[in-house]
Amino acid sequence: MRATTMCLVAAAALCVYGARPAHAQQRATAAAPWQTLEEMPEARWEMASAMVGGTLYLFGGYGAGVQSSRHVDAFEVEDNAWRRLAELPSAITHMNAVADGRSVWLAGGFKDGYPGHVIDEVWRYDIDDDRFVATPPLPEPRAGGGLALVGRSLHYIGGLMSDRDTDSSDHWVLDLEGSGNWTNAAPMPVPRNQFGTISRDGRIYLTGGQLGHDSRNGQPGLDQTRVDIYDPSTDSWSAGPDLPRPHSHAEGSTLLSAGRIFVIGGRSETRNESTIWVLPREGEWSLFAELPQSLTAPAAGMLDGLLVVTAGAPSGSTPHAMVWARRVEPGRDYP
Q1: Alpha-carbon distance 116 to 114, whole Å?
Q2: What is the mean pLDDT of residues 146-164?
Q3: Cα gap 54→50, rounded to integer Å
Q4: Whether pLDDT at 20 is above 60
Q5: Which residue range forms the structural domain that includes residue 91?
């Protein structure tokens, strides 16, 4: 790994990055092990994100003034550098992304501005060709649902219906080696939206989420603690360990590393979160660390034990462009 990431350790030493301006340098100590990296070219939140190799990809989302974006940006972690990629076919938010080799799948979302309308579109972004390819649409429009890949089966779960407020329990599966038609699978136990979605050991974990979206007179949806686990081998659901408190808006910052599920930032009822929760293969959730700032709807990725967090809104609907990184010690039990 190049020196730009190798020097990111939680030690009392100053890491100097040749490609970074002086204002972006920060001392890492045992009390404050976060490093500040090169800022995003455009502050955004509520975007889709995926980590492929050493690159964190960000798709769409809201920019300043809650304006939805078509922009796609890639952060090369080892180079500490951003680059702009081909634009989305339209401005989309509230979609999830899942990596598939050298491709990234995107499904559903709110399209064309705020509040936007719910769509059934499914796109595959081919990294090497830097292009989007239209694929079989969802059976119905959905936004804020979960997207996961298990083997060669793409799963879309839950989310909001066309009225932007009614939660769906639908669970659809697309066989990527099959006929190209979505089929039904066991519905999620409690319909909701804006939950984390991650595949671990051949099963799908849905973490938190909220009930409702537009019908609460300007108040947030009702955040949930529940964790649901889907087993494709039995087409059945079971309950996982509840989150420590109600939680949503961490779709782009829920990730898997060394068998552990990390939920980074997000929202707990009316409060933006600075917490990073971790769930090992066995046991309950525990607190791993605190972000330098509370963030709802950020993006995150992990490269060789280096956790990178960016985007999101510190308060209200105003996003930021900061990028932070810190080491995650392998094999450690938290806290």
Answers
A1: 5
A2: 97
A3: 11
A4: no
A5: 3-327
